[in-house]
Amino acid sequence: MSTVPPVLAAPPQPPAENKRVLCGVLGILLGGLGIHRFLLGDAKGGIIRIVITLVTCGFGSILGLIEGIIYLTKSDQEFYQTYQVEKKAWF
Question: Full-prediction pTM beyond 0.85?
Fold first, then answer.
């Protein structure tokens, strides 16, 4: 009787459409326009960021900068789960 060794399953990989780096860079460079949120499918969040930037005369764009840095510090799997599956809206 032969025994078959158990197969170790690899951790699930995020799909190719993971947008972590692109959203992170757009958040840092154009965060006040909310483009990174539109890219993630969150039109409401993108519009809110535009309004905040206009109301604060541009100072609200710091939110996009912070989000971009947060995106880039997360792993691909963590970013995918948090922002693309669970659709977390803020930070």
Answer: no
